[in-house]
Design the sequence.
């Protein structure tokens, strides 16, 4: 006769312990921490809710209650880049026949698009710059 391996009993016992542990963890109370009062433009909320208010500065803020206390998140719109016309190629090239990465840093929109304008190169020719300027509009 084969010796039985008590897998069914073991799994039922383990499942029972797991359920008991979960139930015990859910019923334990944790000490409440003193919450700071909400600041202007915010309200206190439960951990699953958030409230967004427009403050007097135009910024949005949200306050979340967590186990460690309240967390306030503030956000504002970033400044928009200048839409002024780009400088002349000669001004950026500084007398050279190309614009280097360091030269492009003088005009932030070009610095941001440097790899695109240079076709993944290390310099921008006058033709590439004129094509890039044409695509700006």
Sequence:
């Amino acid at each position: 006769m084969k010796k039985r391996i008590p897998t069914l009993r073991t799994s039922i016992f383990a499942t029972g312990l797991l359920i008991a542990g979960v139930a015990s963890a859910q019923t334990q109370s944790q000490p409440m921490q003193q919450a700071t009062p909400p600041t202007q433009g915010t309200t206190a909320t439960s951990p699953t809710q958030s409230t967004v208010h427009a403050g007097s500065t135009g910024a949005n803020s949200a306050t979340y209650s967590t186990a460690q206390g309240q967390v306030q998140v503030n956000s504002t719109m970033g400044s928009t880049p200048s839409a002024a016309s780009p400088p002349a190629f000669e001004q950026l090239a500084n007398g050279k026949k190309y614009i280097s990465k360091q030269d492009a840093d003088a005009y932030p929109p070009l610095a941001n698009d440097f790899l695109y304008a240079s076709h993944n190169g290390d310099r921008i020719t006058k033709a590439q710059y004129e094509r890039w300027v044409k695509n700006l509009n």
Remarks:
- The first helix runs from residue 7 to 27.
- The two ends are 87 Å apart (CA to CA).
